[in-house]
Amino acid sequence: MNPTSTVQRVDAHAKVTGVLRYGADRLPHDLAYAVFAVATIGKGRVVDIDTDAAQRVPGVQLVITRIDPDELRSPGFIMANGYGFQSLQPLVDDRVAYRGQPIALVLADTLLAATEAAELITATYEAEPIAVTLDDPGAETITQAEAIPIPMLADTVTGDADAAFAAAPVQVDVEVHGPAQHQVPMELISSVVEWRGDTLVVHEGTQNSGAIQNGVAQQLGIDPTQVEVISPSVGGGFGQKNSLLPHIGPLAIAARRLGRPIKLVLTRPQTFHQASFRPASRQRVRLGADASGRLLAAIHEIDQQTSRHDLFPGLYTEVSSRLYGIRDFRGRQRLVRTDVQTPGYMRAPFEHMSVYAIESAVDEIAYATGQDPVEIRLANDATADPVTGLPFSSRHVAECLRRGAVRFGWAERNPQPRSMRAPDGSLIGWGVAIGAYPGSVTPAIARLSVNAAGTVTVAVAGHEMGQGIRTAIARLVADDLGIDPVTVEISVGDTRHAPQHLTAGSWGTASALPAVHAALRRLRTELDLPSTGAPDLRAAVAAAGRPRVDVEATTVGAGQPTEPVVDRLRTGLVTIAGPEYPEFVTFSYIAHFVEVTVEPTTCRIRVPRVVSVADCGRVASPVTAASQVRGGVVWGIGATLREQSLVDTHYGGFLNSTMEEYPIPVNADIHRIDVDFVDQPDPLLNPVGVKGLGEVAMVGVSAAIGNAVFHATGTRFRRLPIHIEDVL
Ligand code: MOS
Does the ipTM surpass 0.90? Predict the structure, then answer.
């Protein structure tokens, strides 16, 4: 069998045979185990901690309850020129900002001893009243544009939306609510931290080894060159692993004091409280249209939860203002301070709920004007970016809708709600929605080497969280050089081999591939090879008279100034360009068509069939791309019908912080998901023609399901998730 033609995912074999090693799979000699004890109040102060019983557990080596703030500085907040998922560093003072915050760290010879000891730690507190929901007394609402004066985070205003809405003959005014949700990646948050001389080595599954490297160096007051972060594969990130987490600094200090390497694996409930989550949100959408369904005005107002200590900025209107060609738009985003750890990015962080609101409202306009839900979307497509007036670099959302409608069989739909039934009597609903996601990129440095045997090695900024970035890189290199993709050695997520940066926001492949592409061009020049065609690499390296040939290339976003952004890449600070570039605006798009069935007596909602057609530019890796879309659809089904982090308004914290009580879809919930791609290269964003895909895959799924549930039942549901008891 010819491996080139059959390789669909270069790490598939290592994954399914369990050979692939994740961060905390490393087991160095003399390992000690760490477990955190956590606060059991929602807010206040630790008055006293009793660690006597913990110290007496056989095998316990060290219990840390307080670290001098000069020894462990704040990591800073990742969205405010820092590195941490939040600015607050536990253990450096007596303050408790949220339930579940670490108050002590136990180090022991075994995991069992560390766990037992941590459970024996008790504290006395001075508790304060808390506010953990948007509506709790004491939750403080502030306007984002005033609180964070950065143009990108300002209100989005074009034309006069209030006047245009007031004058619109057809009006829809809806309020929708999104719950707090958690990422629940399969790989728990985990680290192995060790000192090799003066060098701190961190093994951790992360989306941002650059932030860990530079952030922990800042916290400890050491040079970033003294920190190595190794994260070759991540068992799912989804935004929860996008920054320096607050366990690493204390582990580094403990490892130094003990003179031993340390391993920490957070329990699942701890991952609900010691890292970020999707914040609760409340949105009001007003849409105005003429009698033919032409959209005339949109007003989109959002309140989003944040913590007391950080302002997690919302970007809901970035996408809602571009979804259609609406001239008069007004968006306003507010933040609500509550007593939680700082929330953050979770797949399609803002777009998921933003598009749920807008696409539910568009469906209502379709019904109010008697238009077909697909036709009304096609008729309102944007020809240029309504916010800036710039052209879109590529926009094939209409093609996504047309192709999806055919694949799904949309023409057979009876628009009347409650009109379609399955043989078993279940109500059938068919719904459609589109989604968009900003086309952002980061700077990236790619290093390419070829040795005398002709083996190609690539190191680049990027992380493999399961999305398939390794396969996309391998295919690009293999296609260019005419070699077998499995022979390409790829290093991602490793600060020893290339400067690392945040892999998130669907910019991973769109940032890494252009850098690798540029390095390939440089390699051909260096080896005096023709610009295309399969070269004889061994002969070329031999002719160069060197044991190996190394090249490096750096790329930035279109129109970005190179030097400052590459400096930021090297210091691990968040650096992104887009979706607005000097000459154009870039988004990825998708259309989802969903069939639901609602069982007549139990009102159980099933999703037997989904068709999703995406425009992500050129498809760099067909199999992993299709898997990403399926994963996004599965997540959308979970987010719409299942997932909700329940908060305890009296004691704080999240109540259902286990996989038993936080139900995500299982195989039995998932049926047919047909995926297709427009596969048109974006001509402007980068020479490879790729846009992002991972996040747009989920955008609009909830709205398509909600619209299908309306078609089945005749009822609009404003609050996610939609549970059986809501439909009964
Ligand atoms: Mo993604 S939610 O930007 O890791």
Answer: yes
